[in-house]
Specification:
Number of strands of chain C: 28
Helix content of chain A: 10-25%
CATH architecture of chain A: 2-Layer Sandwich
Shape of chain C: globular
Strand content of chain C: 15-25%
Mean pLDDT of chain A: 89
Low-confidence stretches of chain A: 13-18
Strand content of chain A: 5-15%
CATH topology of the domain at 201-366 in chain C: Dimethylsulfoxide Reductase, domain 2
CATH topology of chain A: Alpha-Beta Plaits
Structural class of chain C: alpha/beta
Order of helices and strands of chain A: HHEHHEEHEEHEHEHHEHEEE
Chains: A alpha+beta (281), B mainly alpha (473), C alpha/beta (740)
Radius of gyration of chain C: 27 Å
Largest sheet of chain C: 7 strands, mixed
Shape of chain A: globular
CATH class of chain A: Alpha Beta
Largest sheet of chain A: 4 strands, mixed
CATH class of the domain at 201-366 in chain C: Alpha Beta
Low-confidence stretches of chain C: 1-40
Radius of gyration of chain A: 20 Å
Oligomer: heterotrimer
Distance between the termini of chain C: 55 Å
Chain lengths: 281, 473, 740
């Protein structure tokens, strides 16, 4: 390792083990979201509330920005890539974007947590350990996507009055005030899939682990799976879109392909690839 | 017009008497001040208990405003703490002896503002009862803090700085505590006996004292610089536009020195007025402090403009947006007020007439500190309001709970300071004597020549100088 | 535990009891389960769980979602005896594994804290809790004395509950079963039946190259949204079809359109005829498929006339016509805003004519399929039914009215004046889960089990190919021992009314089982009764191999009904239906209240949509309150300003503004646009014309922060949602090249 080499390949060194490091992982959970199929219907978001014990905070607190929507469906009216829409009407509809934790391989939230409550699992997940979190909220400040949500209050009593609490998913905790939370890629479902596969003495197959959002998506715009399984649907989509994990610069043989990752320029190496929305122009 | 830093004909006994008088039984005004400070602290305590019980959301903290004026005030108080180090350590090393009458309270300010600042990272934690997890205590589960996090660096830096500056304050006070011991009765005598650690003022003690004091001063200077650099790292190490700025460490250190100096001017005027320290805290010393403050203000202004320029001429459009948001966005009135207080107001310090007019200086120094507080707020909040992600843009104004705790922090600081001035000498007696001693020499060249040779290797407390030894020293 | 023989399970129970006793003696607080079995109280230790309970392991059971009439199959995850999560049934022909937000949230209806748990009878003006026996006794006596003057007012129904309801109604001599749905497709059903001979033809969006939707929000609320969403996904892959939406305010479907064209409600037919006119005049299609009368009507709707009447420019008409022609086969749909007008039938007729002209019939529109057992057929809802009920009630035709699964006091247009008319019914019996407006106005309230506690079957109103009878089976024991399933209540009532043939059934479960046994062999597919019953429950539905018949085309008069001019009320009111609150039935589900509306991102509250130019004229901006007044009344609501609404339209989505309906619905009230709507009907079908109401909009001067999620509606130059042209898409992924 000469100095020259270090200087020339600085970005590779800088990325450390993220540079292709995930090939040693057991799994590498990733997602592909086709924004042309996404209709913005909110089914994914409600499924997330149901699966992950997300608190309902009420109007006042939602207005204050204290909601807990791990998966928020954003809607934009402009289309900067095709020149926007200056007409009298919104004649090409809206632009919908389901945003859940991007599980960045170079996650900016991870290094700043003072107590290492958020870290990367060998599954490629950006994990949040609620019990370890002390609520410094630095991670949320440092998330360029603003996908981390803080329990500003104890929501339990108000969110799940008896007997609504009986719906709570016992596979994961209900978070109390003072901890950060965010999309986990339904880690409890991944866990179940892995346990089932082990019990049955087989490898985890594509489709064994599906997040609640991907499962319920009415147009199947969200595809979830293991990047390391070359046969999985999601890894094929990534490959066909010529988007590669762990690459600072994406080189696409066909630059017209739709795959991209959000705020890619920040080099966070997100695990969710979005596919361009398409419109007749 | 007073031109001398200090009257060199002042008698040693006079110095002791003046300083010890300031520590005598407090009058009604003092108790009123204490009561006011206690009331402020009570506000904060009530607010904190409420916040602890209900959750961090009570002060309007939200997504994306995870941090707000708690962190801004934390940085503000850390900044304040730089004054003492500047006056005692840096000026000590460069032999600027006009610091001597005023460094004691500046050092106290350092310690107390750190004690105030240190509360904020704790108050702002969502689960404050687990705050000790930031420290690398030995856990049988082998769990350590995340050493990559600037917040952990903060914890180290602040605790180190607090310990060192408290030690520095204490060590520098030992000869004076001995004077107090010799003049006090009752509980005070017991206290000072313990604290003065058997100080007799013999040569060996003075020699060791000098060495350790210089050593501490040398140790503190890089520490002070690093502490505020590390605090700036909380922001500079992040990926957020408006925070991720290379010039933040020097910018923060300059801002810290700036607010510290401004606070010294404020306290200078207060102490001079209430304790009638006109003999020691003289107008020329104030002028020198003002000049120093002005210089630092200009450095800070330069760095502020540099920050804008580097963002403006850079290619980071998001950072540029964030900057423009500060210029014209909803927070812009505070931003412009910050620029006015921080860049325009210090020019009052450059005008001799204003500099020598105490009420003016009092107001100006408060304005400067207001500017510095606003600066920290304008770093924390507009960045969170306008970040990479437009969907998460939000304008948030801090709620009553946050204001109450910030308000209370001033009461807490004031309370500590009030206790200090009545328990400890807020003007360094032995250093003032030294200063007077040297000034006498300076005005009597014959004596200076006579002692020139010996003063180089055996300086203060020199018994062979023919001067009476300072009492109690 | 019948008989004296002790089986393994009982043995374990006794063991568990002993164990619990021992532990109790030792002074510990051991949690025990107290069950009522054969009238005895038993302490059953958790060591002897129900057979299907495996602690820590979720088991999935099939059932059917009842949140809207489209009948999606669900799988419910049951763990430790509680249902925790619903997912679409992957085998279901309706939804193939997916589920919308309402289906996901329906569990919150099941676990709702505001459920009614005890029967109630109005005594001295107040509803008082009584025993089931007393309530049923009262109902029976009143029904017995009613002499057949009994009406049923229900939401969309089908399957064995509907069959049983018919039996009961026949037994007591009642004739009127009104099936009312606010969000319906009734006008189109009437016109379709006339023009195609099929009320609800089968649509194949996936086979279409272009879809022109006149307010048919098939992605959210229209007919069978989950089924169409699946078709939509296919429609958008490969060669990627073009979606064009023409509607007064942007629906979810409109927001996904390539081309969104605003139209005043009621003028959709004019636009459809204008498109037909362009197609014919530009010789893009052969007009001879339509009769001469129709062609003559179309020829009147030249571009100039259409532009003058609707504001839609000739270039837009040509573009639409070109898409429809070039991407043939296409599909033209008419939804609520097009149908629900005084001239709604004519609008649908024009839309159907356009389909015929484009040659879509037989390609993207196929014949309806019916479930072979006629008695189980779907009773699709209409609002004409409500009008008829109101009329009958007003005339004093009903001594007793049963109201089930509908909340007309909330959803009836003000013009119907239902409150007063309903009061004329002697005894109003609400079969209900929730204290909604109608239930609280009833004289007898019979608390129903939730859909996930109850047995039932359902034939979807829109039957997709391979569709059939959905099985709704309980996913857990009732939360409250004092609620009963609809079928059980009907069975008790019918038996009391002298339906002796039902005496053989101990409960509705037995009735259902017998019903399955009685199904024709063609449906059973050679399985034994027991096998068929168990397989059906396991799968969640009974599939029927449907044969696609053909449609008989008959085109009548296409002339459009002109809009009533009114200077007092210059604007149109669009009481838009949105998935989420739907027709108001979901306002008590906190998940859906907290979900921002897909288009406006407003949560927990109502809003009015205004076009920027209209807002500028009024001098209002987002968050300002406006007053919307009609001849029926007025309401004040915050404004959301955007370019997705026609300048002459103010859209106030329905679903909020409940007076009752539990804590979540009434906490943040919102407004109910239906209370501004008059009694106008579509002349031909008698359907209430919800989109025909004209209103006046004025500024109130009040303003508040809009409860809306999102700091910026612009991407501010970032590549968040990136858009590419369809040409690029077809180049890279078109045809067989598709990757996703």
């Amino acid at each position: 390792m000469s100095l020259k080499n270090v200087l020339e390949n600085w970005s590779d060194y800088r990325k450390g083990h993220e540079q292709g490091g995930h090939h040693d992982y057991e799994h590498m959970w990733v997602m592909a979201v086709d924004l042309d199929k996404c209709t913005g219907c909110n089914a994914c978001s409600v499924a997330c509330y149901a699966e992950n014990n997300l608190a309902v905070v009420g109007k006042e607190r939602m207005m204050k920005g204290q909601g807990m929507h791990w998966l928020r469906v954003e809607r934009y009216w402009d289309e900067p890539q095709i020149g926007g829409d200056d007409g009298q009407f919104q004649s090409a509809g809206g632009s919908f974007l389901p945003m859940m934790c991007q599980h960045c391989n170079a996650a900016t939230c991870e290094p700043v947590c003072p107590v290492a409550a958020t870290y990367h699992t060998p599954d490629g997940l950006n994990a949040q350990v609620y019990n370890r979190c002390i609520g410094s909220r630095y991670c949320s400040n440092n998330c360029p996507y603003r996908l981390r949500y803080f329990n500003f209050f104890s929501y339990y009593e108000e969110s799940w009055p008896e007997p609504l609490n009986q719906q709570l998913n016992p596979d994961l905790s209900v978070r109390d005030k003072g901890v950060m939370e965010k999309c986990t890629f339904c880690v409890q479902r991944i866990r179940t899939a892995k346990d089932t596969a082990r019990r049955e003495g087989r490898a985890v197959q594509d489709g064994d682990a599906v997040t609640a959002c991907a499962q319920t998506c009415p147009t199947q715009a969200i595809v979830f799976g293991d990047m390391l399984d070359k046969e999985s649907r999601v890894s094929k989509i990534w490959a066909k879109q010529q988007v590669e994990l762990g690459k600072t610069k994406q080189v696409k043989a066909n630059p017209e392909l739709r795959g991209y990752r959000i705020l890619e320029g920040l080099n966070t190496d997100p695990c969710i690839m979005y596919l361009d929305r398409v419109r007749e122009v | 017009m007073q031109t001398k830093d200090i009257n060199e004909n002042i008698a040693w006994a006079q110095i002791n008497a003046d300083v010890l008088r300031s520590m005598e039984s407090p009058r009604m005004g003092y108790w009123i001040a204490v009561a006011a400070c206690l009331a402020m602290v009570a506000c904060a305590v009530v607010a904190e208990i409420y916040q602890y019980q209900i959750g961090m959301g009570v002060g309007n903290l939200n997504w994306p405003h995870m941090w707000d004026i708690y962190i801004a005030t934390f940085v503000f108080w850390i900044g304040m703490s730089h004054s003492g180090t500047l006056l005692s350590a840096i000026l000590h090393i460069i032999h600027a002896d006009w610091r001597k009458p005023i460094y004691r309270f500046a050092e106290a300010m350092t310690t107390f503002s750190l004690m105030t600042a240190g509360l904020f990272p704790i108050i702002h934690l969502g689960r404050v009862w687990n705050m000790y997890w930031v420290l690398p205590y030995v856990s049988d589960r082998g769990i350590w803090p995340n050493y990559r996090s600037p917040l952990v660096w903060d914890a180290f830096a602040i605790t180190t700085y607090l310990t060192s500056s408290a030690l520095f304050l204490f060590i520098g006070m030992i000869p004076d505590l001995a004077i107090c011991r010799d003049n006090a009765r009752g509980w005070r005598q017991k206290l000072y006996t313990v604290l003065s650690m058997g100080w007799q003022g013999d040569d060996r003690q003075w020699r060791n004292f000098r060495k350790i004091y210089l050593l501490m001063a040398c140790f503190l200077i890089p520490l002070a610089v690093s502490v505020h650099s590390i605090v700036s790292a909380d922001f500079a190490m992040s990926i957020m536009p408006g925070w991720h700025i290379t010039s933040f460490p020097p910018y923060f250190v300059a801002g810290a020195l700036y607010s510290g100096c401004a606070a010294i001017i404020t306290l200078f005027i207060i102490l001079r007025y209430f304790f009638r320290f006109d003999e020691y805290m003289t107008i020329p010393i104030l002028e020198k402090t003002c000049k120093l403050t002005f210089a630092i203000a200009m450095v800070w202004s330069y760095l502020t403009l540099i920050e804008f320029a580097s963002v403006w001429y850079g290619h980071d459009l998001v950072a540029k947006e964030s900057l423009m948001e500060r210029f014209v966005g909803p927070y812009s009135p505070f931003f412009w007020l910050m620029l006015f207080c921080g860049i325009i107001c210090p020019f009052a310090l450059a005008i001799e007439k204003m500099r020598r007019h105490l009420p003016t200086m009092f107001v100006v120094s408060l304005l400067l500190n207001l500017g510095m507080w606003l600066e920290r707020w304008m770093i924390v909040t507009p960045t969170l309001a306008t970040s990479h992600y437009p969907f998460a843009w939000d304008v948030m104004w801090p709620g009553m709970v946050q204001w109450a705790i910030v308000f209370g922090s001033f009461g807490w600081f004031g309370l500590l300071f009030l206790i200090f001035v009545k328990v400890f000498p807020s003007v360094s007696m032995y250093e003032v004597k030294e200063m007077v001693f040297h000034r006498r020499h300076a005005h009597r060249p014959d004596l200076a020549a006579k002692f020139h040779r010996r003063s180089s290797d055996q300086q203060p407390g020199d018994t062979a100088s023919g001067q009476p030894r300072p009492e109690g020293a | 535990m019948s008989g004296n023989d002790i089986n393994r399970r009982d043995f374990l129970k006794f063991m568990g009891l002993g164990g619990a006793g021992a532990v109790t003696l030792s002074g510990c607080d051991m949690p025990t389960t107290v069950t009522l079995e054969e009238g005895k109280e038993e302490v059953v230790s958790y060591l002897a769980p129900e057979e299907y309970v495996i602690p820590g392991i979720g088991v999935w059971y099939a059932s059917t979602c009842q949140q809207c009439p489209s009948g999606c199959g669900v799988h419910g995850r049951v763990r430790e005896g509680r249902v925790l999560k619903l997912e679409g049934n992957p085998d279901s022909p309706v939804n193939a594994g997916v589920l919308c937000q309402m289906g996901q949230a329906s569990l919150q209806g099941h676990y709702n804290p505001d459920r009614i748990t005890k029967p109630m009878v109005r005594k001295g003006g107040n509803l008082t809790e009584v025993s089931w026996e007393e309530a049923i006794e009262l109902v029976n006596s009143k029904v017995g004395a009613a002499n057949g003057k009994v009406a049923m007012l229900t939401g969309a129904m089908s399957g064995h509950q509907a069959e049983l309801m018919d039996t009961y109604l026949a037994k007591i001599g009642g004739k009127d079963h009104f099936v009312y749905e606010t969000i319906n497709n009734a006008v189109a059903e009437a016109v379709n039946a006339e023009m195609f001979g099929s009320a609800q033809p089968r649509y194949n969006l996936d086979k279409a190259g272009a879809v022109l939707s006149f307010g048919a929000d098939f992605l959210a609320t229209w007919v069978s949204p989950m089924h169409f969403s699946q078709q939509y996904a296919k429609f958008r892959t490969g060669n990627r079809g073009v979606l064009i939406a023409v509607e007064p305010n942007m629906s979810l479907t409109g927001a996904n359109a390539d081309m969104w064209v605003p139209a005043k409600p009621g003028t959709e037919g004019v636009i459809a005829l204008g498109v037909a006119n362009v197609l014919i005049s530009k010789k893009m299609v052969d007009g001879s498929v339509l009769p001469v009368d129709a062609l003559a009507t179309i020829s009147q709707y030249g571009v100039d006339k259409v532009t003058a009447e609707t504001g839609v420019g000739g270039d837009v008409l040509v573009r639409i016509a070109t898409y429809l022609k070039e991407r043939s086969p296409s599909l033209v749909l008419a939804g609520a805003s097009a149908q629900s007008n005084t001239g709604g039938s004519q609008v649908v007729a024009a839309v159907n004519a356009l389909n015929i002209l484009l040659g879509n019939v037989g390609k993207t529109i196929g014949a309806e399929d019916a479930f072979p057992v006629k008695s189980l057929a779907p009773r699709r809802g209409s609002s004409a039914a409500l009008a008829a009920f109101a009329k009958g009630a007003d005339a004093g035709d009903y001594e007793v009215a049963f109201i089930y699964n509908t909340n007309p006091l909330y959803s009836a247009p003000a013009g119907l004046e239902l409150n007063g008319k309903l009061a004329k019914v002697g005894l109003k019996v609400a079969l209900s889960m929730f204290p909604d407006e109608t239930t609280l106005a009833a004289d007898v309230v019979l608390p129903l089990a939730s859909p996930y506690e109850d047995w039932g079957t359902q034939v979807p109103g829109y039957l997709p190919s391979e569709g059939g009878l959905n099985v709704q089976q309980p996913l857990m024991r009732p939360l409250y021992s004092t609620v009963k399933g609809l079928g059980d209540v009907l069975l008790v009532l019918a038996k009391a009314a002298g339906a002796e043939e039902l005496n053989q059934y101990a409960d509705f479960y037995a009735y259902l089982q017998a019903g399955f046994a009685a199904m024709p062999a063609s449906i059973k597919g050679g399985m034994s009764d027991a096998e068929f019953w168990s397989k059906s429950r396991q799968k969640g539905f009974v599939a029927v191999a449907n044969s696609q018949g053909s449609l008989n085309v008959k085109v009548g008069d296409l002339a459009q009904v002109a809009d009533k001019a009114g200077s007092d009320f210059p604007m149109h009111l669009a009481p838009a239906a949105r998935a989420g609150m739907y027709d108001g039935r979901n306002a008590n589900l906190p998940w859906l209240q907290e979900q921002p509306d897909p288009i406006t991102k407003v949560f927990w509250d109502s809003w009015a949509e205004l076009h920027p130019s209209t807002a500028a004229k009024l001098g209002v901006k987002e968050g300002d309150f406006i007053r919307v007044e009609s001849a029926q009344g007025s309401l004040e609501v915050q404004v959301y300003v955007y370019k997705g609404v026609h300048p002459d339209v103010v859209a106030v989505p329905m679903g909020r503004g409940h007076d009752e309906y539990g804590r979540f619905a009434s906490r943040e009230k919102g407004v109910n646009p239906l209370k501004l709507i008059g009694g106008d009907v579509d002349a031909k079908s008698g359907e209430l014309a919800l989109y025909s109401t004209k209103v006046r909009v004025s500024k109130t001067g009040r303003s508040a922060e809009m409860p809306r999620l999102g700091g910026s509606e612009s991407q501010v130059g970032r590549r968040l949602v990136s858009t590419v042209s369809a040409d690029v898409y077809r180049r890279t992924e078109g045809g067989g090249n598709n990757v996703a």
